[in-house]
């Protein structure tokens, strides 16, 4: 659905000043931002690699170890079903773990950097 109406006018008095490109570059080169990026990478990269390895193990076992994956554990529940459900479980656990990590370690550092940029603008 399209309209012919122009976009609403911004109130010049209430709009905040935007940081300049130079200030973004300056922040990006700061030690605080480097520490924030290091904190993020030291968490995200190993966890991503571990999850991809876990997923590929599941795929490879499904393709090449059919006998093992078809092993019945109890009733109609076999190893493949347990591994498949574990994929979902680990996905949710990683998301929960990351949200806790971000709230505790990343968000406070990012908020300090953001506040400083907004104050300088």
Main sheet properties: 2 strands, antiparallel
Instruction: Round the mean pLDDT to the nearest integer and report it.
Output: 88
H/I helix tally: 4
Helix/strand class:
mainly alpha
Helical residues, percent: over 70%
Strand order of the biggest β-sheet? 1-2
Rg calc = 24 Å
**From the structure provided, what is the oligomeric state, counting identical versus distinct chains?**
single chain
Broad shape: elongated
Beta-strand percentage? under 5%
Succession of helices and strands: HHHEEH
Query: Which regions have little confidence, pLDDT < 50, spanning 5+ residues?
Result: none
Spatial separation of the terminal alpha carbons: 37 Å
DSSP strand count: 2
Could you list some keywords that capture this structure?
4% strand, mainly alpha
3D architecture notes:
The structure is a single chain. By secondary structure, the chain is mainly α. Helix content is 73%, strand content 4%. The chain is built from four helices and two strands; from the N terminus they run H-H-H-E-E-H. It has a two-stranded antiparallel ribbon with strand order 1-2. A hairpin with a 2-residue loop joins strand 1 (72-74) and strand 2. Helix 2 (31-64) runs antiparallel to helix 4 (79-120). The chain is elongated, with a radius of gyration of 24 Å.
């Amino acid at each position: 659905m399209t309209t012919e109406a122009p976009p609403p006018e911004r109130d010049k008095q209430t709009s905040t000043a935007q940081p300049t490109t130079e200030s973004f570059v300056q922040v990006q080169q700061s030690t605080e931002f480097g520490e924030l990026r290091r904190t993020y990478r030291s968490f995200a990269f190993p966890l991503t690699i571990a999850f991809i390895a876990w997923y590929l193990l599941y795929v490879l076992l499904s393709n090449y170890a059919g006998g093992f994956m078809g092993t019945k554990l109890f009733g109609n529940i076999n190893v493949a079903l347990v591994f498949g459900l574990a994929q979902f479980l680990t996905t949710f656990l990683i998301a929960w773990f990351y949200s806790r990590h971000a709230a505790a370690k990343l968000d406070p550092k990012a908020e300090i950097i953001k506040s400083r940029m907004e104050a300088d603008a």
